[in-house]
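Async update (no meeting this week)

Hi team, since we skipped the sync, here's where things stand on the single-chain job. The sequence we agreed to prioritize is pasted below, unchanged from the tracker. I ran it this morning and attached the output directly underneath so nobody has to dig for it. Comments welcome in thread, and please keep replies under the output.
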Amino acid sequence: MILRTMMRVVPALCLVLGFNVGSAHAEANLTGYWSGTNTASQVPGKTANVTFFLRQQRDGTVIGGYVASTGVYGTGTGKFSGNTGTMSWINTSPYCVGEYSNTYTIAADGSLSWTYNGKDCLGDETGSGTAKPVVQ
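Output:
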């Protein structure tokens, strides 16, 4: 239910905020849905599935939203240039609010990998993840 709502709300929010719906920056087209896995230091040995939507402007500015299999969800903003980028994410789940800073690398096959650090209801967090574009 949350994922379906996010899939409708985040793209609409991008349009309301004035983000270009056209093609993204030529160096990397991140606009679209992504699916992957994420680890968190406060939950050792566990991997969460994560789905997110990104909308990228021509200047590399990115906004997005995510939902994880753990039930948390949130929104983020950032900037990409070439095959790297950074984003700040806010976990808006009422039972586990948090903020994270992510650093991304875009691989030759178009997949994303990231590391992050931040703080949420579990305390200080670090982790990493990978995702691939969802073909629609």
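Quick observations from my side:
Residues 2-16 form the longest helix (15 residues).
The beta strands are 32-39, 47-56, 61-68, 73-81, 84-91, 98-106, 112-120, 123-133.
Reply here if anything looks off.
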